[in-house]
Specification:
Protein Transport Mog1p, Chain A; 2 domains; seven-stranded antiparallel β-sheet; 10 helices; 13 strands; 27% strand
């Protein structure tokens, strides 16, 4: 993502809550299997995070970032380990940060509510927390990889609870979906990282929406599906109209259009839910994918709520 001054000024900053750092520090073990914490810890809020990670700060600030603690761990004759523990305020936002950096080709590392281990880096999320644990070495011995996992398991256990997942995930069709391809989107910059729609936020994605982008495969052809849950049907309808008017200008009566790169898009709205199929090879596939999401949403609305179905 861009690190320009304009981008920085456009990011909505969060204010660290009282007790954020004390809670984060409490989650970190002092010692584990011969590895000892090297103090002092580094504390970053929404202003000082740029001093620590200038090029990547916007990724976290796009979501509801509340605070970061950076802790080092050392052991004799072993590379140092750095733990970055982020409080993202809500589980949705921790999930979003994790998914936007995930490699869909890697299996889940079974830590917290989702984890990925690649070479010298372990990332995972649980509840409102996102965690990155890395070893300061190019060639990582098995003992260090084990330490990364053990630290992750200890922190996940200290968190002690799972957080809710966004409702919008339940409307993604299952057939053909590429495992681990889901990306939870919380704003224009995060969406444009995966699909460039220009400077305008055509689909009105922001903190008051739930949005997920997922990849689907059929006959080796890939296409994406964006599902957005809005706070009201009026906002969903306006987002659909803006998308058609500014991106899918040649959309037909069913909401399908062939765009500049020769691929097809299709957009549909049902109540406060919007589904947009992107980069489909044919019109029929675009309409089918968007329609499947709409059908899942429509079916869910017909189910009685827990309150209504209670005796």
């Amino acid at each position: 993502m861009s690190t320009s001054r304009e981008t920085r000024q456009s990011v909505k900053r969060s204010t660290s809550r009282p007790g954020t750092f004390a809670e984060l520090i409490r989650l970190l073990p002092e010692k584990l299997d011969g590895w000892a914490r090297q103090k002092p810890d580094r504390l970053c809020d929404d202003r000082t995070i740029y001093d620590y990670m200038d090029g990547a700060a916007e990724v976290y600030l796009t979501y509801a970032f509340a605070g970061l603690v950076v802790a080092g761990y050392g052991r004799q004759r072993a590379p140092s380990i750095v733990v970055e523990l982020f409080d993202m305020t809500r589980s949705f936002d921790a999930y979003g940060v994790f998914t936007n950096g995930r490699d869909e080709a890697l299996p889940d590392a079974t830590i917290g509510q989702g984890a990925e281990l690649r070479d010298a880096l372990l990332t995972f999320w649980r509840d409102q927390y996102f965690v990155a644990i890395r070893a300061d070495a190019d060639d990582v011995p098995k003992t260090v990889t084990t330490a990364l996992r053990d630290l992750g398991l200890a922190i996940a256990a200290a968190i002690g609870r799972d957080g809710p997942l966004p409702e919008v995930l339940s409307y993604l069709p299952g057939a053909g979906r590429v495992p681990h391809s889901e990306r939870y989107i919380n704003g224009r910059d995060a969406l444009n990282y995966h699909h460039d729609f220009g400077d305008r936020n055509l689909l009105h994605v922001g903190p008051d929406t739930q949005a997920v982008l997922a990849t689907y495969r059929r006959n080796d052809a890939r296409r994406d599906l964006l599902c957005v849950l809005f706070p009201s049907a009026a906002k969903a309808g306006q987002a659909c109209r803006d998308f058609v008017a500014n991106f899918a200008r040649e959309a037909d009566a069913e909401g399908a259009a062939k765009v500049g790169d020769g691929q097809w898009v299709a957009v549909a709205v049902e109540g406060r839910f919007l589904a947009a199929a992107l980069d489909a090879p044919t019109r029929d596939e675009a309409l089918e994918l968007a329609g499947q999401a709409i059908q899942r949403y429509r079916k869910a609305q017909k189910r009685p709520s827990k309150k209504e179905s209670s005796p």
